[in-house]
Amino acid sequence: MAQTHHNTNKRSFKHLTPFDRGQIQALRREGKTLQEIADVLGRNKSTISRELQRGTVTQRRSDLTEYQAYFPETGQAIYEANRSHCGAKYKLAQVAEFIHFAVEKIQNDHWSPDAICGYAKTNHLFEGARVCTKTLYHYIELGALPVKNIDLPLKVRRSTKKKQTRKNKKILGMSIEERPSHIHERKEFGHWEIDTMVGQRKKGAALLTLTERTTRKEHIFKIDQKTVDGVNQAIQELKNIYGTAFSSVFKTITSDNGSEFSELVKAMDCDQIHIYYTHPYTSSERGTNERHNGLIRRFIPKGKSIDDIDDTLIAYVENWCNSLPRKILGYKTPNDLFLEELKKIA
Q: Is 273 in the same domain as 138?
């Protein structure tokens, strides 16, 4: 629809094109004046004058005498060179300290650009001398930093999958369909998701991971095998860690239908803790835990034997996950929020 009332001024100028410059050369050779050339092109006389100054160069005849001539190619080349200098200038020099901080966090601590920018903003670091997440990504794209896209593990294209709900063939306990709806809102502390991670397909050690849905607190245990006994052993370690507060910290646990979790209810040995099982092949119903498993895979890739991994590395990965500022947490760390919840329980 045409707008009759507006306050936008119509642009009354446009840049000369290579065709326009060719016309200027032809008309100039015919002896036309500046005003006549301007009238033919529908431009201002001053525009033609500036263009002639821009594209006029000194030439030399065969008898070595010099003369001035306008060349449209010269005018176009100078125009393009001037245009390349237009636009906002990079301010790498002004934010050098922040850039150094960002590179160190990406390379050494494996932080994402968004985590870096959000953490700096939340904690009032580098005030007036930092860039936003988009600009930091842009610098990486341009190659202006000693960081490449391959250093950013999650910068990949993801294909969406259609959600398909399958019916459980084996019933290990209460279905996730019976889980109270308020748990989905992530407002109440104490609701966890659990899973196991294997290194190689052959039997051997595995990792048991638990993630708290609200604070994103992560627990990682190395178990001898991906079996019921291995899971029960890790659950007992959890009980030793939290003692009498165990039932307050762990209110519900959501698990998949793996056979290693078949006796999870028995291992908890507490009527106050409820166990829920997801639908088959629906890892999205444990999305928080799956996301953290992806973070762990940065350090312990698929195919690497868990038997060869010592407790020091596992403790490092667990601490890294819990010390990483998260955008979804207002750039606080899981450790910060988890300690706040423990204080409430105490």
A: no
